[in-house]
Amino acid sequence: MTEQEDLIRDVVVVGAGAAGLSAALTLTRARRSVTVVDAGQPRNAPADRVHGLLALEGVSPLELLARGREEVLGYGGEIIAGEVVDVRCKSYGFAVVLRDGAALQTRRLLIATGLVDELPDIPGVREQWGRGVLHCPCCHGWEARDRRIGVLATGPMAVHKALLFRHWSADVVLFAGIHQLGPQEREQLDALNIPVVAGAISRLEIDGDRLNGVRLVDGQVIDVDAVVVATRMVARMEPFAGIGIEPKTQPAGSFIEADAFGKTAVPGVWVAGNATDLAAQVSGAAAEGARAAQHINSDLVMEDLDRAVATLADAQTAKADA
C-alpha cells in the first residue's frame, strides 16, 4: 500500500451516483479538497430514463451522471476510477485503500455507495430488469399505466406492491407462487379486484426484447406487459466494516444507520443516498448528499476553529512566559 503523505484531503466521497456527486458539488463549492472514488456500478444503469426529477424528467441516467461529474470537476474536485476495498482509521482521519494498493488520506469520509437489488432467481427477470421488470410505482407507474401488470410474490412486500400499482392500472394480477396470503391480504386484493394466480413460476416469456407473459410450471402462460418484483435491497458497505460501520437490517434489506443529516455512529463518517435510505429516488438521494455535505463542511469549520483557538491560546501563554 502506498500513501500520498503530502496530500490529506478534506473529504473522500465513495460513490459517484446522485448522492455522491451532489455532495461533492456542494463541498467543492465550499472550497474543500474533495476526491470522489467511482467503481462504475450505478444501481440505475439498466434504466433508460430518470423520472420524478424536477426540470430533468426523463433524462438518461448516464447523461445525468456525466453532467454531475463535469460540474464537480469544474469546481476543482477530483474523480478517480477505482474500487475501495478497505478503510483504516488514522490520526488525521482515514486512509481509504483502493484495490490497486493506493491509499487516499482524508479528514472526513462520505459513503455514497448505493445498494444492490437482490433479484429473484426466475429466468428472464435479470434480462428484463429496468425495462419490462419494475419495482417502484413512483418511478415507473406512469410508464406502466393502463397496461397489464403482473406482480410476483417473491417477498413480503408483494401484496403492498400490487395494491400500489393498482392505482396506475385496473389490470393487475398477483402471482402468489408459494406465498400464503393472509385473510386481510385476500380482503384487500378482492376489494381492488386484483386476481391471484397460484402455482410456481417457470420463467418470464420474452419476445425479442419485449416481455409479454409469465409462464407457470404447469405450462400455462398469463399475458402481461410488465412484471413487478419486490427486491431485497442491500447497501454496499463491506469495505467499511473495519472502522465500525455495521448493517442495520429490516425486511426490505440492510442499510447504514445515520441521523437526519447523514452522520453515522463512527466519528468523521457520513452516509447519503440508498446506502442509508433504501427508498430514496434520484431526487432524494441528491438532496441527502447535499445536506450531508453541508454538515461535513460545518464540522470541518468547527474543527479548524478549535485548532486556531488552541494555537492562539498557546501563543498567548508562551508570550506571557517569555
TrEMBL record:
Keyword presence, Cell inner membrane: no
Keywords, ordered alphabetically: Flavoprotein, Oxidoreductase
Cleaved signal peptide residues: none
Sequence ranges assigned to domain FAD/NAD(P)-binding in this UniProt record: 10-289
Reactions this protein catalyses: [thioredoxin]-dithiol + NADP(+) = [thioredoxin]-disulfide + NADPH + H(+)
Protein name per UniProt: NAD(P)/FAD-dependent oxidoreductase
